[in-house]
Predict the 3D structure of the following.
Amino acid sequence: MLKQLLIAVLFFLPSLLLAQSGKVFDNLTLPSTILGGERKYAVYLPPGYESSERSYPVLYLLHGGGDDQTGWVQFGEVLHITDKAIQEGNATPMIIVMPDANTGQRGYFNDFKGEWRYEDFFFEEFMPYVEKTYRTKNEKRFRAIAGLSMGGGGSFMYALHHPELFSSGCPLSASTGPLTLEDVDRYVERSGAKNVTAAQKKAYYEKHSALALVESMPADSIKQVRWYIDCGDDDFLFEGNSLVHIAMRKKEIPHEFRIRDGGHTWTYWREALPIVLSFVSDAFHQY
């Protein structure tokens, strides 16, 4: 009898271990009318998703410049890190969605002239698609956004533009946008845009500078989001993140600000991800 029980346990053990792992799909697509074509994305589904009927919180996780929707999968080890955080009880089971912002034009924002409207795509097409396709809890409390570098900038701007949609915002090593109106010229040159007017530059600065937004927005609006801001002490984007932190302090906006040893590297972001998962889970839970 004991021998038969042991054989049964050994037979089913691989299935039991497999059931404890989430799944990642990194080459999925959806149609976009706004951007005119198919857009790729990746998704992490938590352990038990396929065998349950429950709905889950969702984290939108944005990649950096030069990567695509596979960045957090390939280099960020999102499957291993999230599985481990959930198994150890440091994160609640969640769906993680990673869109591609590197095809057509690079970036998470509408361009200077409104001819490339990625931010409109994200809010008007991508989020509704995700929240109809997957069993997500479609309430602010159960929705968070995070990202690294260019995606950290996307996290800042999206949560500041729509504090009513996200419970938590977690910019990592974020590109915080132009620090002054004069700094916008550098962004125009980098984008290759031609004949950008002074009015268009001003509008871009007011909408895509995290520092300008924090200084101009009502503090109560910014306080609707729980903030976790993290940037390495050797990171070239350290200044912008520090200035946003100071601006938030002056307006008495609660936020976590972390300066850890490190630079603009995947080692740094892999170490940040478990903390982000725990942080957003605090809102997903009843805290």
Notes: Strands lie at 23-32, 37-45, 58-62, 95-99, 143-148, 168-172, 226-230, 256-258.
